[in-house]
């Protein structure tokens, strides 16, 4: 395996390193919460923080095939299904709102996940979303949960 510092300083075709692309994407998608998450690793595993930025955001999130909004929907579903990822869910619920998902769309994605990974995991994820919404002053949400009269 090559030295990560070499990877971070080797520029790609755009002239920017994966770390530079990752930091830009992290700021765009996650905001200041992303930098806080990376900084929280500095005294225990700065390399893990660099990998999250370089690979996770500089290589994966920076790919053009999915928009950041779509990537957040996928991420919310995956973290919900995994379970035990509440700190990461908090970051990504905020990120989902940052990239244009509405609170109602976040809730709908978490509700949808219950069919595939179970109610306990969907409930835990929903409680995380509720915390984020409360911190942002977005509660109460309008009740859009009732089935439509014409649903068949």
UniProtKB/TrEMBL annotation:
It comes from the Bacteria. Pfam families: CMD (PF02627). Residues 7-17 have a biased composition (Polar residues). One of its GO terms (molecular function) is peroxiredoxin activity. Residues 46-130 form the Carboxymuconolactone decarboxylase-like domain. InterPro entries: 4CMD/NDH-1_regulator, AhpD-like, CMD-like. SUPFAM superfamilies: AhpD-like. Residues 1-21 are annotated as: Disordered. This is 4-carboxymuconolactone decarboxylase. It comes from Streptomyces cinnamoneus (Streptoverticillium cinnamoneum). The lineage of its organism: Bacteria, Bacillati, Actinomycetota, Actinomycetes, Kitasatosporales.
């Amino acid at each position: 395996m090559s030295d990560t510092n070499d990877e971070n300083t080797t520029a790609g075709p755009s002239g920017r390193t994966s770390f530079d692309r990752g930091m830009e994407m992290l700021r765009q998608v996650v905001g200041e919460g992303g930098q806080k998450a990376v900084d929280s690793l500095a005294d225990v595993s700065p390399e893990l923080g660099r990998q999250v930025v370089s690979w996770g955001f500089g290589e994966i999130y920076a790919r053009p095939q999915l928009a950041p909004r779509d990537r957040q929907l996928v991420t919310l579903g995956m973290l919900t299904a995994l379970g035990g990822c509440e700190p990461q869910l908090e970051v990504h619920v905020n990120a989902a709102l940052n990239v244009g998902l509405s609170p109602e769309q976040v809730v709908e994605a978490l509700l949808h996940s219950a069919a595939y990974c179970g109610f306990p995991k969907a409930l835990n994820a929903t409680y995380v979303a509720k915390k984020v919404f409360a911190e942002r002053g977005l509660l109460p949400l309008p009740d859009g949960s009732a089935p439509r009269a014409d649903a068949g």
